[in-house]
Write a structure and sequence with these properties.
2 helices, 78 residues, alpha+beta, single chain, two-stranded antiparallel ribbon
């Protein structure tokens, strides 16, 4: 099965191949070049969890403040 290479050097792995190798978004793959020039693709790991840019910003407050104190800080009343 033939696929086209984009201007960035990217290809889309056909669905049948992704399913066969259990490749999912975030999965790692390896390319091996044999001495005769053949290239093989191997799935090498489970997909890593990709946190959204918002999830990375989530956290917990470490300072205990009352709502009035927070509002005063945001308004510049301090």
């Amino acid at each position: 099965m033939a696929v086209h290479v984009t201007s960035k050097g990217q290809v889309t792995i056909p669905k049948r191949v992704r399913e066969l190798l259990k490749i999912q978004p975030g999965s790692a793959v390896e390319f091996h070049v044999d001495p005769d020039g053949r290239v093989t693709l191997r799935g090498v790991g489970r997909p890593r969890k990709v946190k959204s840019r918002f999830a990375r910003l989530r956290g917990r407050a470490t300072v205990r403040m009352r709502t009035e104190e927070i509002m005063a800080l945001t308004r510049g009343d301090v």
